[in-house]
Write a structure and sequence with these properties.
By secondary structure, this protein is mainly alpha-helical. It has helices spanning 5-13, 36-50, 54-59, 74-93, 105-118, 126-131, 158-173, 175-189, 193-215, 217-220, 223-230, 272-280, 288-296, 302-312, 322-329, 335-364, 385-393, and strands at residues 102-103, 135-136, 148-149, 248-249. It is built from 17 helices and four strands.
């Protein structure tokens, strides 16, 4: 079933597409001739970071982005923000045992300017780390594993590439799921139970593909390498014992030399799971993780954040979530509908269970404990194991 023109406009309004979900259209910008110094820095960053010469190099650079940006598009801003975010985190965490709590003006000022235009905080977010950070080896093929590579790395290497590529592949596979959700909601409004069932089956098929991709994480991303070579650079400076006083963005007028506190990059900044929760009527009792996840909305692209708000406010006449309320009303007389819904919830639980297992394997079970790479919190800076288990337990069909 094709999306109606209204639904197509609705998805595109929120910068989402059925073909690639929350990934940008067109593909992320690879280079931009008007930013030669910035482009050079992005290309050399892994080597400079490996030699621990990134800080020294950045300290000598000026005019990373041009003063006039009359011809800049949103794609240009995303391109610049990607490199500036990696450069800033590399500057701060170049020596993970001795991170810096001040960012020089030549990097802080353009970074804050660009991130502000995108409606994002000046910190490496999931959007710059994954959504805007890939290219296709063969542009004629789909966005999928073994056809996507990263545009920007920290140290680089197989484990870092694969870790992010898994996320990009999942994002692409989520596109049909978002479209199916909208079609199912429309069918529910029109009381077309068979169409709702069909769209839930499409949703389940898509979620199965997402789970299959997530299952492949260990193929080329080793837990030890992730913990010691990938994870240290994506930490933020909020609730991080390595940077207890936050970060000073030198030269940024609005911050007035006062330290700022932002969370690190995390998959919790992806819109996929919140969208599925909202569509399937999955709710979570308030706890530190729900508070944290609500905060993560501010790190998402504004259009994606608005999409989640739209889903969460789609209600029926009784004030219930539109889709799950309809399903509940037809639980007894439409067994196929209930079965399709139940399968979707089971797959969401499977996805969460796999993620919980990875959180334990890739982080919690790593024996070395150090202040710059704490095991008790996620990269976003929050305790995770206890509440991830709780949210998994809460992923169950409505009414149960």
């Amino acid at each position: 079933m094709q999306l109606s023109p209204i639904q197509q406009r609705s998805l595109s309004h929120f910068e989402i597409s059925e073909e690639r979900g929350f990934l940008p259209v067109p593909d992320p910008l690879i280079s931009y001739v008007c930013c030669p110094d910035l482009e050079w820095l992005g290309r050399q960053l892994p080597k400079l970071l490996a030699a621990r010469q990134l800080r020294n190099t950045i300290n000598t650079m000026q005019n990373l982005i041009p003063g006039r940006k009359d011809d800049w598009t949103v794609d240009t801003y995303r391109y610049a923000n990607r490199i500036l975010s990696f450069a800033a985190h590399g500057y701060i965490w170049e020596n993970p045992d001795h991170p810096l709590d001040r960012l020089p003006a030549n990097l802080a000022v353009p970074w804050c300017e660009v991130s502000r235009r995108l409606g994002r905080p000046p910190v490496l977010s999931y959007a710059s780390y994954a959504l805007d950070n890939w290219r296709r080896l063969d542009p004629s093929r789909s966005i999928e594993l073994d056809n996507i590579v990263l545009l920007q790395n920290f140290l680089g290497g197989l484990d870092e590439e694969w870790f992010v590529a898994i996320h990009v592949d999942i994002e692409a596979k989520a596109g049909p799921a978002m479209a199916a959700i909208l079609r199912a909601q429309e069918a529910a409004e029109r009381d077309h139970a068979d169409k709702v069932t069909k769209e839930l089956m499409t949703l389940a098929s898509t979620m199965e593909s997402m789970c299959s991709t997530l299952d492949r994480m260990p193929e080329r991303c080793d837990p030890y390498m992730y913990y010691h070579r990938v994870r240290p650079f994506i930490h933020g400076w909020k609730n991080n014992p390595a940077l207890p006083n936050g970060l000073v963005y030198e030269g940024v007028e609005e911050y007035r030399e006062e330290p700022q506190y932002f969370r690190g990059e995390t998959g919790a900044q992806s819109s996929i799971i919140p969208a599925l929760d909202a569509a399937l009527g999955i709710t979570h009792a308030e706890d530190p993780l729900t508070v944290y996840l609500a905060e993560m909305r501010h790190y998402m692209p504004p259009a994606h954040r608005a999409f989640l708000e739209r889903l969460e406010h789609q209600q029926d006449h009784a004030g219930r979530p539109l889709l799950s309320g309809y399903i509940m009303d037809h639980k007894s007389n439409k067994p196929d509908l209930w079965q399709a819904y139940h399968e979707c919830v089971q797959l969401l639980a499977r996805f969460r269970a796999t993620h919980l297992d990875y959180a334990a394997t890739y982080i919690h079970q790593q024996s070395e404990k150090q202040s710059t790479n704490p095991t008790s919190v996620g990269t976003g800076g929050t305790p995770f194991m206890e509440y991830l288990k709780k949210h998994l337990e809460e992923t169950k069909p409505i009414g149960q």
